[in-house]
Design a protein that fits this description.
The chain is an alpha/beta fold. It is built from ten helices and eight strands. Helix 8 runs parallel beside helix 9.
Length: 296
């Protein structure tokens, strides 16, 4: 099944990298295209969706999630676009920040309800993104809350149970992630980057698939901060002890080879931190290797 690439250049879920500075990850789809992604994947161009303007306005800490209405409306539009591609092709959504999960997850949830099926999520990320009012007083940036929101935790106008806890597998978080205990208590399976390295990326993908293959299909969320900052510094929240490119490619290949894998999203790459495009090219190479099972 051919890959179809959709641009979702939203940055609404991120805090400003500096006062008055707009997060650069909205430029990621263009940067990855310029680095040759479509050609490497022999992919069809499924267009893109213009995101709402990034503008914090008068928002202050304690006001809840900023850009909430824009994130919700964008998720609806993205869900409609992705829903038209699933089953006809293999969608590859180029974010943007991690809130694209709210759109892709909505597409899967509506499909599951219409068909009486059950879809899961492989959440490949350097952070659990599980912040919500039940465990933090610092909600605001939805890109750090997307997994919580997608499992029904958080602000009412954004949170929706798009995935059941038991149908989520988290891969690549760091050993010191604050939500590890809560993930376990919720029944959300996870392996840290260190555990993936010790077990091997291929075996870790197989471990995740043993859970996901019980479902009718699953989606892959990829935040490139799962990579170590030594090989991928172009993210908003780099964390040490991440994966290298070879490990990530092997992990992705082990997930996307599954017949039930319905699509992938790529998030958080920031071209503003990659002035000569070298990191974009390295990421394209990793994606090409990781998605090789899907290239027709």
């Amino acid at each position: 099944m051919a890959i179809s690439i959709v641009d979702a250049p939203t940055n609404l879920g991120l805090r400003p990298p500096a006062p008055g500075v707009v997060p650069g990850c909205a430029k990621a789809p263009a940067a990855l295209r310029e680095a040759g992604l479509l050609g490497r994947l022999a992919a069809a161009d499924a267009g893109g969706l213009v995101a709402p303007r990034y503008d914090l306005g008068e928002w202050q800490p304690g006001d809840g999630v900023f850009h909430a209405s824009g994130i919700a409306s964008y998720a609806r539009r993205l869900a409609d676009r992705v829903a038209g591609l699933i089953g006809q092709s293999f969608p590859l959504v180029l974010g943007g920040d991690c809130t694209v999960l709210l759109g892709t997850g909505l597409a899967l949830r509506e499909r599951a309800l219409a068909e009486g099926r059950r879809y899961g999520l492989a959440f490949v990320d350097g952070h659990s993104d599980f912040r919500h009012p039940g465990n933090s007083g610092d909600v605001g940036a939805a890109a750090g809350e997307d997994l919580a929101l997608a499992t029904g935790r958080g602000q009412a106008d954004l949170a929706s149970r798009l995935f059941e806890d038991a149908d989520v597998v988290v891969l690549g978080i760091r050993e010191d992630d604050e939500a590890r205990g809560e993930l376990s208590s919720c029944g959300i399976g996870h392996r840290t980057a260190l555990e993936i390295r010790k077990a091997g990326a291929a075996e870790s993908a197989e471990w995740a698939r043993r859970r996901l293959d019980e479902l009718d299909g699953f989606w892959v969320h990829l935040d490139v901060d799962v990579l170590d900052p030594a090989v991928m510094p172009c993210v908003d929240a780099p964390a040490p002890e991440g994966l290298d490119h070879a490990e990530l490619a092997e992990l992705l290949a082990g997930l996307t080879v599954a017949p039930g894998c319905l699509g992938v999203e790529v998030t958080i790459f920031d071209p503003d931190l990659d002035p000569d495009g070298a990191y974009a090219k390295a990421l394209v190479d990793t994606l090409a290797r990781g998605l090789a099972p899907r290239v027709s």
